[in-house]
Amino acid sequence: MLDKAKGLPADQVFMDIEDAVAPLAKPDARKNIVAALNEGGYDGKVRSVRVNDWTTEWTYRDVIEVVSGAGANLDCIMLPKVQGPEQIRALDMLLTQIEKSEGLDVGRIGIEAQIENAMGLTMVDEIAAASPRVETIIFGPADFMASINMKSLVVGEQPPGYDVGDAYHYILMRILMAARAYDKQAIDGPYLQIKDLDGYTRVAERSAALGFDGKWVLHPDQIAAANEIFSPRQDDYDHAELILDAYEWYTSAAGGARGAAMLGDEMIDEASRKMALVIAGKGRAAGMQRTQTFEPPQS
Ligand code: GLV
Ligand code: MG
Predict the structure, then answer these.
(1) Mean pLDDT estimate for the chain
(2) Residue 251 Cα, ligand 1 centroid: separation in angstroms?
(3) The last residue of a domain, from among 229, 245, 266
(4) Are residues 165 and 265 in the same domain?
(5) Rounded Cα gap, residues 185 and 114, in angstroms
(6) pLDDT score of 299 more than 70
(7) Partner of 138 for a Cys bridge, out of 19, 35, 187, 200, CB 3.0 to 4.6 A?
(8) How far apart are alpha carbons 121 and 82 in whole angstroms?
(9) How confident is the model at residue 156 (pLDDT cuts 50, 70, 90)?
(10) Which ligand is nearest the CA of 145, by number?
(11) What pTM, to 2 d.p., does this model score?
(12) Range scoring the smallest mean pLDDT among 20-29, 76-85, 156-165
């Protein structure tokens, strides 16, 4: 898996020492991860390692072994089941000491915080603000469902009996607000039924529609769906670029220095520009090409 991930079109790889690794296998997992990171080949991908959470006996050793062994070839530590800002600060301090003692750039390694229980969600604003190292807030639906006693075993799907809305709406929005307030990425977690691509798509489309930046994939088959769902549709991307060009022209002297103008049947103003920047930014990051250009009206 560590090798296979190198050639896959995912934006990030994360290597696990937590819940996908049995307790007896954790010491070997640390070594395998250090070897894989140092061997390289993950070019263009964010390289992250998920350590165990601070309530276990493993976290400090995970961090020390992985960062001392491969800190220069690692971008982020993912911290699961975060319950408060002190857990982020503890990791921040440990990272700073290791970076200093290993001669690494202090502060380069980021933190990805998984929100996986009621306490974590309650504290999510403080968690997002706890350190400049925090780059990403991640929803961990499996642990979260267990933590709140949700009456379902199918991760990410609606619990049977709740037919009046989306049972995850509050959780997703709470995480998204904290992420946006503190300028972090918001990432949706795993969908475990790896053969059910329709299911993956349905769940991913919901968080993408709200504004999440991405979703985990557990299997190569889920990657194409994720890349497509979290990129804008071609017509939305074209429209966003059109709004940006049109608004730039209308606000210029040549366009009449206007703050509000008509683009076809649509009024555009500064708020339209901000919305268009979000969609255009995602499209550009995904390498999309525009298929329309703005022509200033002839006067
Ligand atoms: C991921 O870690 C989850 O618990 O969903
Ligand atoms: Mg989890």
Answers:
(1) 96
(2) 47
(3) 229
(4) no
(5) 12
(6) no
(7) 187
(8) 9
(9) confident
(10) 1
(11) 0.94
(12) 156-165
Using the structure block, give the residue that is written with the tokens 């604003």.
Answer: 125
Report yes or no: 88 and 112 within 8 Å, Cβ to Cβ. no
- Listed in sequence order, the DSSP H helices in the chain are 26-39, 59-70, 85-102, 118-122, 124-129, 141-147, 169-181, 197-210, 223-229, 234-251, 270-285
Which residue's alpha carbon is nearest to atom 1 within ligand 1? 140
Tell me the β-bridge partners of 268: 261
| Shared-domain flag, residues 162 and 19 | yes
Residue type, 19: D
Q: What is residue 130's three-state secondary structure?
A: coil
Per cent of the chain over pLDDT 90 is 96
Please indicate, yes or no, whether residues 83 and 46 belong to a single structural domain of this protein.
yes
Under 8 Å CB-to-CB from 181, ≥6 apart: which residues?
Answer: 125, 128
Task: For residue 84, name the pLDDT band (cuts at 50, 70, 90).
Answer: very high
Question: Among residues 164, 199, 229, which one ends one of the domains?
Answer: 229
* CA 115–ligand 1 middle distance (angstroms): 9
- Give dist(CA 257, CA 71) in Å, integer: 51
Q: pLDDT at residue 153 above 90? A: no
* Distance between CA atoms of residues 145 and 61, nearest Å: 28
Whether residue 292 lies inside any domain: the answer is no
Tell how far CA 184 is from the center of its chain: 9
Residue 199 belongs to some domain of the structure: yes
Residue nearest to atom 3 of ligand 1 (CA): 140
Contacts with 72 (C-beta within 8 Å, 6 or more apart), sequence order: 104
What is the extent of the structural domain holding 268?
234-285
3-state secondary structure of 243: helix
Specify whether 186 is located in the same domain as 243: no
Q: Are residues 222 and 257 part of one domain? A: no
The pLDDT tens digits of the residues spanning 103-136 come to 999 999 999 999 999 999 999 999 999 999 999 9
CA of 79 to the centre of ligand 2 (A): 10
